[in-house]
Amino acid sequence: EVPRQGASEFLKLAPGIYLSNEGGEAHADQVFLRGFDAREGQDIEFTLNGIPFNEVGNLHGNGYADSHFIIPELIGSLRVIEGPFDPRQGNFAVAGSADFSLELAQRGITRKGVFGSFGTYGAFLSYGPPSTSTGTFVAADYYQTQGYGQNRDGRRGRFMGQLDGALGSTLHYRATATVYVASFHTAGVLREDDYRSGRVGFYDTYDTRQGEDAARYAVSGELTHRSGAFETTNRIFVTYRPLRIRANFTGFLLDVQQPIQTPHGQRGDLIDTQNTAWTFGAKGEATAHTTILGMPQVFTIGYFARGDVVSSMEQRVEAATGHPYHTDAQLSSTLGDIGLFADVDIRFTRWLNLRGGIRSDLFTYVVDNLCAVQSVENPSRSNPPGDASCLSQQNFGAYRDPNQRVSTTAAIALPRGSLLVGPFFGFRASFSAGVGVRSIDPSYIVDDAATPFASVVALEGGLSWEHQFAHDIDLTARSVVFNTRVDKDLLFSQTSGRNTLAGAATRLGSANAVRVRGQFFDVAANFTYVRATIDADGLLIPYIPPVVARVDGAIFGDAPWFWARPLGHTIRGNMSLGVSAVAGRPLPYGARSQPFATVDLGASLNWWLVTIGINVTNLIGTQYALGEYNFASDFHNQVQPTLVPVRHFAAAAPRSVLFSIALNYGDGR
Length: 669
Description:
The protein is an all-beta fold. It contains one helix and 34 strands. The strands form five sheets. The protein has a 22-stranded antiparallel barrel. It has a four-stranded mixed beta sheet with strand order 5-4-7-6, with no helix packed on it.
């Protein structure tokens, strides 16, 4: 019930997750979890109905996961696993994994309109046949906004349809189709010294060409067969994903004059990244249930197969004309991932349970770098290459084609397991260990690379407690201490506008959560502390928040007054509150960002066919930076620009109020 602007904001219910987004409403949210700056998904495996939607080989970020294609009203459940402890978790499950499940509980026809701050309005339409399961529906929505500052306008359209049913008592099927298109502008970052001096406003922009055009077209199918103690599930999926992102972090700084180029001034640092991908895949598992020594036991084996055909290009764009003047990278990649796993759930006694197994993945890369040569140490004097980006010269003018193919294949074994002890008087202890994997960006691949992936070793120990009090009040609490080491980490680079490969790093921390539920209320709170350091020098990893705290609460129920049943229909209401607090984050060069806290409020009333609601985000109107960075830039705002690193920020949204009204009919209404 707490206001959520998109599917990714449901992640905030999991302990320690913090979201940021300097790229605008069409850009995937940056996710922080357990000391990992997962950026847009590079360290978290994202799935929808078990189907992965991390984008392999995306030049903007390998593992880019844009959840904006999911309509929030259709999220039936969200399962977050923190850490790589389940053999089913695959590529990018470094900090953990998140699986969205689709469901439409409101049957019949629902029409909903939304309008509010900053010229925002939207419409939602859904239909769930009353005689079918909640997994069968069609739904579409449209959204448009002028944005809360300069260059933040955009629009989006989505469709999701799903058919869920059974053939007899043994066969269950599900087919899902999604269509998503979006186009948004974004403001990017501002220099703090420009804001302090009044040269720019807090919600202004330097470059109005920044933005994103995104689309996604996907179909998937699932078939589950049950026969006695055995159950098999198989899924297939196909996705087509075009994406274009334009961002400028440094202004006019990186266009260095090369000796082979004609003389030029700084032409601009706008990065124009284009990525087009086809994804094909299948995954499945077979499970056997049995009883040994009077205790239930579960054994599972499974497979995963995925192929991606990716075309990507990154160019620099001239500010004066909008024309591309330099190609930073151009790749054509064919990528594969074949995985097998075995999983057991063994109960030795009612208080001792072992879960886990082993997974093995084989990664394949065939990468054609279409712009492999961008400089020549000794160019031809009679025929210098000039301003071209992708050169056909070797030393002293010898000809070569501008492309270079590389390929490699490698496998990794991923053992994982958890031991659960208890419950004793409501207490349960758990001990977990696991190895996770993240495939490497294709731009880093060389022929026969030994390990074209990053591996992570994670350890965890925790204690939980559950108790039911009188009046149906349930209390659950848990505390976990974790240690995670990754051998090839990722650090954000403003010059390339994405994460780049770095050395080993370690995270040590604790995640804590408590939830209290009653007949008319539900309150959940979590607190996470983490220390994330680079192994080589012990310095803190930039941008990782050391402390994240979150409280979500809701009260709900039927109106108790005698007049609250007009025309014989009860008025039902709810009110919800979400509070987030984030400590100051370490920045490069020894700086630290400002801490901040936000409050979101939601309320709704339902009577018969009608539901009206109000959502207020950033209720207290906190003016804060959603993201803060330290680096050098030159946006031509200073008379004498300094090229030393300075503070930059991306402005978070101010207070926003959205009203909604929905009509639902056709389900016996």
